[in-house]
Amino acid sequence: AWGVEELLPGRLHFDPGVFVEQLFPRVLTMLDHIMANSQTAEVEYASSQTADGASTDGQLDPGTFSPQNRDGIRWQLGL
Asked: How confident is residue 41, by pLDDT bands cut at 50, 70 and 90?
C-alpha cells in the first residue's frame, strides 16, 4: 500500500509516487486537524490576517501587495 515491495529475493523496491500518494492526504488531514485545534490567540506574534491579506476587520495589510513583495515573489519564482 505504501509503495514498498520485494521484487527480488532480499531486495526491496521503493516507489516514491505510490508513497507520496499515500502520504499526502494523511499529512493534509493531520495539518487540518492541527490548525482547527490551534488557538492562535495564544501564539506570540500571531496575526489575525487571512491568507489573502485581509484582517479580521476586513482591512488589507498595506504591505501585503506592495511592489517590493510582488518583485520578491517574482524573483523567487524565477520570473
From this structure: low
CA distances from 28 to 2, 18, 50 (A): 17, 16, 19
Which residues neighbour 57 within 8 Å (Cβ) at sequence distance 6 or greater?
none
Nearest to 63 by CA among 78, 76, 72, 75: 72
CA pair distance 28, 18, nearest whole angstrom: 16
Averaged pLDDT for residues 6-26: 88
Residue 13 CB: number of other CB atoms within 10 A? 10
d(CA 39, CA 37): 7
Three-state DSSP at 14 gives strand
Which tens digits make up the pLDDT trace of 51-73?
A: 555 555 555 566 666 788 888 88
